[in-house]
Amino acid sequence: MDDNKEKKEELNGKLFLIVGPSGSGKGSVISEIKRRYHGFVYPVSYTTREIRAGEKNDQVYHFISKEEFKKRIANGEFLEYAIVHSDNYYGTDKKEIMEPLKGGAIVIREVDIQGFFSIQKQIPKENLVSIFMKVSDLNDLKGRILRRGEISENELKKRMDSALKEISQAEFCDYQVPNQWGQMKQSVHEVEQIILSEIKKINY
Question: Which DSSP string do the residues of 75-92 spell out, in sequence order?
Fold first, then answer.
C-alpha cells in the first residue's frame, strides 16, 4: 500500500493529520478549523460506504463503488487506503496531499490510526504532525456512533473493537487532545493552537 517517500527537498508545506476512531470528533474539529482558516487545504477522502442522510457527495467524501476504488488502487492513486470494519474502503488521494505540500501549503486531513501509520512511512517527519482525538469514555463514544444513524449490533461491535485498538496506539501520535462530549470548543482550541505553533516552525 505504501509508495516510496518523496524527496524531502520537494515538500515545503506541512500535513496535519487529525487521527482517531469513528465517532471521536475528527470531522467536527476539522469543520470548525475549516470555518476559521480558509487558506488551508482540506482534501476530500474517497470511500465505498453508503452515503448517510444529510451528507452530500464530494464534500467530506467522494462516494464511489468498490470497482472504481480498486481501479484507483491499481493505478497507484492513493497515498494510503484501508478496508475499515472489514467491509468499506477508505482512501486518501495522493495528488490532493502531495501537490499542495510541494507548494508550501498547510494541509489538514482526518484519518484513522491505520491511515496515519501508512502516511507516516511516506511523508518526512518535518512535514508531518499527527494529533490524536482521544475519547476516554467508551460509553460516550458509543453514544456518538449511535447518534449518527441506525446500525446493527454487529456493526457497532466492530466499531467499538476498532476504537479500542486505535486508542491503545494513541501514543504514537505527536499530540493527544481530549475530546469529551460537550467540550468541542475546548478541543478545537487545543488543535488550533497546536497547528499555529507548528506552522511557526516552518522555514519558508
Answer: TT-EEEEEEETTTEEEEE
